[in-house]
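Please annotate the following for my students:
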Amino acid sequence: MRLSLRRAFGDDAFRIADIYAPYVKNTTVSFEYAPPDAAEMRARFLRISAEFPFLVCEADGEVAGYAYADRPFEREAYRWCAELSVYVDGKFCRRGIGGRLVGAVEEICRRLGYRKMYALVTGENENSLAFHGALGYSVSARFRGQGYKFGRTLDVYWLEKELGGDGVYTRFPRPASALSDEEWRAICGREE
């Protein structure tokens, strides 16, 4: 299987919505109750990608997963923090796609000037907790009974990872659009 990373495009919205839908309909991984359609995913993509990286991983030419960073909070003092989201099509799980996507999003955020990367994980999602732990994320907090889905109350774990030191505070992070084509290729451009 040939894997390649690239920036997502608006035209990827249908496939991204298709990958995300089972997580919404069948699991507590997502706290959404109804899967967003392609138009909603495109709108989310356009909002997020104006400032943050939004990537897809292709497996033999098919979009097999996606990941992005976004603002976890709105206040200015949090501008050096980003929240990670990553989803992989079930038929492509456990093939290294999630790790590649997360590594690339982290590297882009590091280059843009972010200090912290956060991930919110449902308490019963042991696979995701182990996945993030293996990538260097540590649990910062456990929020009990934060969500309610499928007739049960769910805990949420707040995980974090350090991307850069205190030196990043000399300026606000740059938007993802500030990266040169060479930087994008250096991070995403190789196939495996």
Summary: Residues 88 and 98 are 6 Å apart (CA to CA). Helices lie at 13-26, 38-49, 97-112, 126-134, 181-188.
